[in-house]
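As a representative case, the lines below give one protein's residues and fold tokens.
***
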Amino acid sequence: MEPFFWQSVAVGFAAQLVDGALGMAYGLVSTSFLVAMGAPPALASAAVHTAEIFSTGVSGAAHAWRRNVQWSLVWRLAPAGVAGGVAGALAVSFAPVSLLKPLVSAYLFLMGAFVITLAFRRAPEKPVAPNGARRIGLIGGFLDAAGGGGWGPITTTSLLGRGHAPREAVGSVNVSEFLVTAAISATFFFALGGVRWSDIAGLVIGGVLAAPIAAYAVSVVRPRLLMGVIGSFVSSLALWQITVALDPHLTFLASLRRLLG
């Protein structure tokens, strides 16, 4: 086996462990890895979503088995996510979407900070009526396909902000993600004519191995602690993305200041 294969296994395992336990970041971690290895963004997103068909299938089944899923929420979230995902995959295949990333990062930072505040006050033990789930799914699916990741951060943090119990929010998001990912992958096959299978095998194996472990973790961790971890993770990741996006501009301004000074 090539070294790259084992690196993909490690990244797939780590990404799915985080995604299955917190409901987010598989696409962000995996896509960043593939782009760093030289894959074009559209092909990287296509490879990640193809790999996610397998890992999200196992993850969703594990969450369903442990009764972490609110099915009425899934039936509202998944169809809208499929529609948004198809639109996002077509957009990234034929048009630049780099302007979306700073806006998404700013939104995630604010949502993460809000979720942290929820961890310090009394949260409902049962999820509320899933109002707005279709809109959340539509936005989350589009940004996930267009940016190579984002379904979990958008949907999970939004649902938590609306008062859903962390365990059922994460489980429902994971089950919905399987359907959304399948639709996105099919769209990429149509638009790009295929994917790089060499990028997929390691991600699939690592993700499948991690999925049952993550489903067990989310069912035993205390809700307040899990909510705090989710909020901190999202805010930190978003702040890092904002810093990376602004770095070229900051470097340019610093150079201009030295030139003028």
About this structure: The mean pLDDT is 76.
